[in-house]
């Protein structure tokens, strides 16, 4: 009985502590993700409170966190939005991928982590945090700006690309070999196409499986089917998160809205556990060693994101100030960089140094992103004025 | 006029048009239904200098304010041949003495020689309201008469 009491006290302290960190993040106007990671670092090796006996819970809970993060991401977008985005802005998506995957991949190769490490780090620096970006745009009153559709379409393209990138990475990390690897990727592509077609044609039917007039039944069905799909996807080596993401896309719009409403609190709870567990598994004493690399990566990948956003906004005919605003809005990296790093680390196929590097990098970028979005206008204005006033 | 509709994935739908003066005006409808009025910036037409959240009632009030002049313009059009007669619209403010009282109590015709020909409330036009029509704050009263009479009518509706 003693162990149950102890577990409850530890969990209670953990969640209450996270609540305090979340409040602090709110006060500072930043995403809570970096603070959760810091919390994890503090509780880990040589931390304030050694957490013992709750690992079975936190392990499962953090997996559920990833599933819910990706499920709600899928629910955010309808299939028609994804297909429309793909048609209109594939070029911006490709430029974004090439520019932003490169810094991570090159850093991993320089550090001697091999092609697998490069694949994982490419994902870490590539994907912007859609959560932070959407919040920053709303906070700064830029939702109505003309460059905002370009920013959102880059996010949409990244998320669609995740549906392919995650299974590819899973297959590569599991060292499945070429044939099995290609099979996994083929399954993922096929699933993505099938889901998009099904969602566009028969979205109602999928929603009918989970629809229920009472919130309680709806919540249980939704949560249940998400875990079932994630589990089956994981069994097929497609990665649990991708299964959940595709399920989210397949659910029709008004059901999706209700689902987001009931699942968002659960997502916040389990995702917080996921970030803490990631922090727990990171050895804080390794952070100073990777700090220089993380800082260089932060600087370089801020520049490449600026360029990617600039290009995306240029594509839809937005003027120079809007192009820089689009670039700066996309700078933030967050939850998905950690999801990708977590995926890579669980297989044990990459250098363990990836954990402190990804943590430090996300800590920097989650804070730097919103700052970049804020200062881009005054900085751009000042630079333009100086250029104009300097006689040629 | 071209109203441009843009879907914002994960956020909602934006409908906007460009005015003759070159500013973009639009409405952003969030997925949860709440709306924002958007006005583009003067220096940078791609940016928004204002985005104002509107409740349903506020959106309706704005629509009435912008839509009602059409009615006045139409009435003015019809009365163009009558020399010296014009049409005006006056709001019943929250502090108006006639908020909650009837049209008959204003004794508008007797006191000013003008006629109340319509009342606009929540987008709906009540044509030729009778003497027992009860005014409410937010109503727009459309009055026809001489310039002098209209001035007096405005004072009556405001201060009694």
Automatic annotation (TrEMBL), chain A:
Keywords: Membrane, Transmembrane, Transmembrane helix, Transport. GO terms for molecular function: antiporter activity. GO terms for cellular component: membrane. Its main location: membrane. InterPro entries: Cation/H_exchanger_TM (IPR006153), Na+/solute_symporter_sf (IPR038770). It comes from the Bacteria. Belongs to the monovalent cation:proton antiporter 2 (CPA2) transporter (TC 2.A.37) family. This is Potassium/proton antiporter membrane subunit (CPA2 family). It comes from Actinomycetospora cinnamomea.
From TrEMBL, chain B:
Residues 75-159 form the RCK C-terminal domain. One of its GO terms (biological process) is potassium ion transport. Signal peptide: none annotated. GO terms for molecular function: monoatomic cation transmembrane transporter activity. It comes from the Bacteria. Coiled coil: none annotated. This is Potassium/proton antiporter regulatory subunit (CPA2 family). The lineage of its organism: Bacteria, Bacillati, Actinomycetota, Actinomycetes, Pseudonocardiales.
């Amino acid at each position: 009985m003693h162990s149950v009491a102890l577990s409850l006290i530890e969990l209670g302290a953990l969640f209450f502590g996270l609540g305090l960190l979340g409040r602090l993040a709110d006060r500072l106007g930043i995403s809570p993700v970096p603070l959760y990671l810091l919390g994890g670092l503090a509780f880990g090796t040589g931390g304030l409170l050694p957490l013992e006996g709750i690992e079975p819970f936190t392990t499962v809970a953090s997996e559920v966190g990833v599933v819910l993060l990706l499920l709600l991401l899928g629910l955010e977008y309808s299939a028609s939005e994804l297909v429309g985005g793909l048609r209109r802005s594939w070029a911006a998506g490709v430029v974004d991928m090439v520019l932003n995957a490169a810094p991570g991949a090159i850093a991993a190769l320089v550090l001697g982590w091999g092609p697998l490490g490069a694949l994982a780090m490419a994902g870490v620096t590539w994907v912007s945090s859609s959560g932070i970006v959407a919040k920053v745009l709303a906070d700064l009153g830029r939702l109505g700006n003309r460059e905002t559709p370009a920013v959102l379409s880059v996010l949409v393209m990244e998320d669609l690309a995740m549906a392919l990138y995650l299974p590819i990475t899973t297959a590569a990390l599991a060292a499945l070999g070429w044939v099995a690897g290609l099979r996994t990727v083929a399954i993922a592509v096929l699933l993505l196409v099938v889901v998009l077609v099904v969602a566009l044609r028969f979205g109602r039917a999928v929603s009918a499986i989970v629809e229920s007039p009472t919130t309680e039944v709806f919540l249980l069905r939704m949560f249940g089917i998400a875990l079932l799909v994630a589990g089956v996807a994981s069994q097929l080596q497609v990665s649990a998160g991708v299964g959940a993401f595709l399920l989210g896309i397949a659910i029709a719009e008004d059901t999706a809205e209700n689902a987001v409403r009931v699942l968002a609190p659960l997502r916040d709870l389990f995702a917080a556990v996921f970030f803490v567990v990631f922090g727990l598994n990171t050895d804080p004493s390794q952070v100073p060693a990777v700090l220089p690399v993380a800082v260089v990566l932060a600087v370089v990948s801020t520049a490449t994101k600026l360029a990617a956003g600039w290009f995306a906004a240029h594509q839809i005919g937005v003027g120079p100030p809007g192009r820089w605003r689009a670039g700066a809005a996309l700078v933030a990296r967050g939850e998905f960089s950690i999801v990708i790093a977590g995926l890579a680390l669980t297989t044990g196929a990459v250098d363990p140094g990836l954990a402190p590097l990804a943590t430090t990098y996300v800590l920097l970028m989650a804070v730097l992103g919103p700052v970049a979005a804020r200062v881009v206008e005054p900085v751009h204005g000042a630079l333009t004025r100086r250029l104009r006033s300097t006689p040629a | 006029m071209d109203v441009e509709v843009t879907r914002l994935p994960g956020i909602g739908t934006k409908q906007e048009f460009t005015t003759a003066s070159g500013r973009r005006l639009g409405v952003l409808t969030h997925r949860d239904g709440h709306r924002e009025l958007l006005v583009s910036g003067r220096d940078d037409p791609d940016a928004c200098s204002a985005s104002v959240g509107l409740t349903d009632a506020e959106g309706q009030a704005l629509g009435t304010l912008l839509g009602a002049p059409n009615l006045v313009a139409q009435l003015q059009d019809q009365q163009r041949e009558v020399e010296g007669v014009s049409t005006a619209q006056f709001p019943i403010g929250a502090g108006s003495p006639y908020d909650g009282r009837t049209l008959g109590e204003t004794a508008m015709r007797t006191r000013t020689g003008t006629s109340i020909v319509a009342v606009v409330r929540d987008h709906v036009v009540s044509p030729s309201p009778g003497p027992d029509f009860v005014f409410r704050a937010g109503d727009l009263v459309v009055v026809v008469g001489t310039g002098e009479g209209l001035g007096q009518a405005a004072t009556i509706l405001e201060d009694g």
